[in-house]
Write a structure and sequence with these properties.
23% of the residues lie in helices and 21% in strands. With 768 residues, the protein is an alpha/beta fold. Helix 9 runs antiparallel to helix 10 and helix 11 runs antiparallel to helix 12.
């Protein structure tokens, strides 16, 4: 690797780290689990068994049971009555008891309608289980090994399914609400299936945990079928390091992280392009709503998500490469098709600000609609991809979002614990957003998103559909008809500076500490409160003061410089206006850059005759600004490792310092700094007269500030730029007096004192 490329890469890593902090704010940690490897992939998706159950779970209150089944269809009611009679004599009263009775693969447990709080599993650990030695997660729970889970299955789990193969657990009610497994916020997980290949869950509800309702870990084969999860601190459904999985007809809401979390799905397509032989997990027919985010997946690899609905969350769906300890990073090969992703505009951060989320979970009011968001999330977003590759988003309906439909930013590898230089820019690449229905619902009614694309600019091979509405940048690369075809492709090592600054500020969120970053509109900042507007205003003031002082001290007599300065001031004002949330996706930011670029270019041209080096720097800065406007509004310039904005920013700092020096230098003796048409009078613009400089004498004739010649015999010597004082009396105006050193001094007589700004006589002026 060349030295130049190493420097650019190192710079890009430092800058890209700003974006990565979006998901690494203190206290805002993702799911943490023991080290685990993927299954070998030899399993398969289990099939539903429809025969009679092997084990039964029910309560003994006949009156309550009769009430629960009273509205069932006749056939289903009769079946439940028969199962109840059998369960009353030979069944179990708690699900955990039935699980413990499973002694071979292929058994089915049927749970009859009722509320199951699993009272024997609820008490806190005692004895040896209270003294387990294990690392603590950032959220405070212990990260237990599999052996420790077996030793103390209820330290964290209401129901623990450990090492059971081909086990099916199903409710027998008419709907999933007829069987409810309730952790009452006493346990981390309501149901944990760990190392249990072929597990099948169907037709029940799990709820109210301090982490997640239904957790499947290290399984080669699982199905979640017609299950509801709700009211959890973190996740509704969490599947991790698993393969051959299927979620179908499920629902989840009221979760502080996500409703559906297929984290670290088996990385079976690593190294492939868009065409893959199979996916590790399929999600279909599910609805996830009123969560922080509907769908989430750190290292959510090879997940096929189709025909679902993600609505009324803060964000519809997200996938990322932002947390260490997740096998399969960086995230890759998610495929979203035919999903309804709409109206994800909830904002639950006020519950953090007012202290609601600082209360114990049982007192927060999850059942009344409270959600306590666990990480930083831009509300009003359809799909977020934070550091993913080879993802396909096609034929989805994405509408009604107050921020953006598609959000893409990079995450460098050291955030996930990999320090190799070659990996630091391995996200986000080859994400394809094509053929989606943006800003309209299925009926064709208009439901626009504020913008359709928000991209930090990093990565290569990314593309968006040509009919996208408002986007930032204004002209992202377009997808061709075939996957892999990209028009106007850009491949950059680092994103836009202002966007990275926004991500850095917004990342400083901590739900435990009730810390909501000031300056970030995700948490309610508007107008001058937003960091983007503050940066724009600050830079505009610095440039306006610097440029204005430069014009006033050096160029105010130059009409071209005056016009350029007015254009620059207009551009700076538009830049501040264009940084606001409403105007960012419009043409205003590009027009602001255009005017500012013209200002610098013209200013450089007026400075060229007298300060060539500073003038050249100014012209280059103007050209970079114009190039930045073109890059943001017309076409992202290919073949550049960073955007013109970075070069403009770095050179702009140099220019400001140089302009301050040029402005503060002592003006030349003998005249104003600029003429009416860009000429000079009295010396070069922006620097004091020096020996040998040509200056204007009377009538505009140049004279020398110094030179050889005898000194005058007596009396003061006139300085350059001073004209003769005519003697009293009639007569023509005297001719020019030679400059000092150009001839002998007068023989005698006083020499009149010189006036620094004496004017040459006007045409036709007579004697004084």
């Amino acid at each position: 690797m060349s030295r130049t490329r190493r420097f650019v890469l190192a710079l890009s890593v430092v800058l890209a780290a700003l974006a990565a902090t979006l998901f690494t704010a203190p206290g805002a940690q993702a799911h943490e689990e023991r080290p685990v490897t993927f299954p070998d992939g030899s399993g398969s998706v289990p099939k539903l068994r429809t025969g009679e159950p092997d084990l039964l779970v029910c309560k003994t209150d006949r009156a309550d049971f009769a009430r629960r089944i009273s509205g069932f269809p006749a056939a289903l009611k009769a079946r439940n009555l028969a199962l109840f009679e059998r369960c009353a004599t030979s069944g179990h009263r708690h699900l955990q008891q039935a699980v413990d009775a499973v002694d071979r693969p292929g058994l089915t447990i049927a749970i009859l309608p009722g509320l199951y709080e699993e009272e024997p599993s609820q008490p806190p650990p005692t004895g040896a289980c209270a003294r387990l030695k294990a690392p603590n997660s950032a959220l405070g729970y212990q990260i237990l090994s599999y052996e420790q889970q077996r030793q103390c299955p209820h330290n964290q789990n209401l129901v623990a399914i450990l090492g059971k193969k081909d086990l099916q657990i199903e409710g027998t009610g008419a709907s999933r609400l007829d069987v409810v497994i309730d952790a009452t916020y006493q346990k981390l997980n309501a149901i944990r299936a760990d190392g249990s290949d072929g597990v099948y869950f169907r037709n029940f509800t799990a709820q109210r945990t301090t982490f997640n309702s239904l957790y499947v870990l290290a399984a080669d084969g699982f199905v979640i079928d017609d299950v509801l999860t709700r009211w959890n601190d973190e996740y509704g459904f969490l599947t991790f390091a698993s393969d051959h999985g299927l979620y179908k007809n499920c629902e989840s809401y009221g979760n502080g992280d996500s409703g559906l979390y297929p984290g670290s799905a088996s990385n079976i397509n690593d190294g492939r392009g868009y065409d893959v032989p199979r996916h590790s997990i399929e999600i279909t027919g599910c609805r996830s709503h009123h969560n922080m985010v509907g769908y989430s997946g750190t290292a959510g690899d090879s997940v096929w998500v189709h025909d679902n609905e993600f609505d009324h969350n803060m964000g519809g769906a997200s996938m990322d490469s932002a947390f260490p300890g997740h096998p399969g990073l960086p995230q890759n090969h998610a495929r979203f098709e035919r999903n309804l992703i709409h109206d994800n505009n909830q904002n639950y951060y006020p519950y953090v600000a007012d202290g609601t989320c600082a209360r114990p979970p049982v007192e927060r009011g999850y059942e009344r609609g409270v959600v306590c968001p666990q990480i930083s999330m831009p509300p009003g977003t359809g799909i977020i991809t934070a550091g993913g590759n080879w993802n396909l988003y096609e034929d989805n309906w994405v509408y009604g979002h107050q921020r953006t439909a598609f959000y893409l930013n990079a995450v460098p590898a050291f955030i996930r614990g990999e320090s190799a230089w070659g990996k630091q820019t391995d996200t986000s690449h080859h994400n394809r957003y094509a053929g989606n229905h943006l800003g309209v619902d299925r009926s064709g009614a208009s439901r626009p998103n504020r913008t359709d694309v928000w991209w930090d600019g990093q990565g290569g091979g990314n593309c968006w559909q040509a009919d996208a509405g408002a986007t930032t940048p204004g002209a992202p690369p377009e997808c061709g008809a075939r996957r892999g075809d990209v028009s106007g492709a850009a491949d950059r090592l680092v994103g836009e500076p202002v966007k990275l600054a926004q991500l850095l500020v917004c990342a400083d969120y901590d739900v435990q500490a009730r810390r909501l970053p000031a300056g970030c509109d995700w948490y309610g900042a508007r107008g001058l409160q937003r960091v983007e507007t503050q940066l724009a205003l600050g830079s505009a003031l610095v440039l306006a003061l610097t440029g204005g002082a430069l014009w006033w001290r050096r160029l105010r007599g130059n009409r071209l410089a005056g016009t350029a300065t007015l254009l620059g001031l207009a551009g700076l004002a538009l830049d501040v206006a264009g940084s606001t949330l409403a105007l960012t996706p419009t043409a205003v930011p590009a027009v602001a850059l255009l005017l500012t670029g013209v200002w610098w270019t013209l200013l450089g041209l007026t400075l060229r005759p007298v300060r060539p080096a500073f003038a050249l720097t100014t012209v280059i800065l103007g050209a970079l600004t114009l190039l930045d406007a073109f890059d943001k509004a017309v076409l992202m310039i290919p073949g550049t490792p960073v955007s013109p904005a970075w070069l403009r920013l770095l050179l702009g700092v140099v220019w400001v310092l140089w302009a301050v020096v040029a402005t503060g230098a002592r003006p030349p003796a003998g005249g104003s700094a600029g003429g009416s048409t860009g000429g000079t009078a009295g010396g070069p613009v922006g620097k004091p007269a020096e020996p040998g400089d040509a200056v204007a004498g009377p009538g505009g004739a140049p004279t020398s500030t110094s030179g050889p010649g005898p000194a005058p015999a007596s009396g003061p010597v006139p300085t350059s730029g001073s004209g003769p004082i005519p003697a009293p009396g009639p007569g023509p105006a005297p001719g020019p007096i030679p400059a000092p050193g150009s001839g002998p001094a007068p023989a005698s007589g006083p020499v009149p004192p010189q006036v620094s700004d004496a004017r040459p006589p006007h045409h036709g002026e007579g004697p004084a």
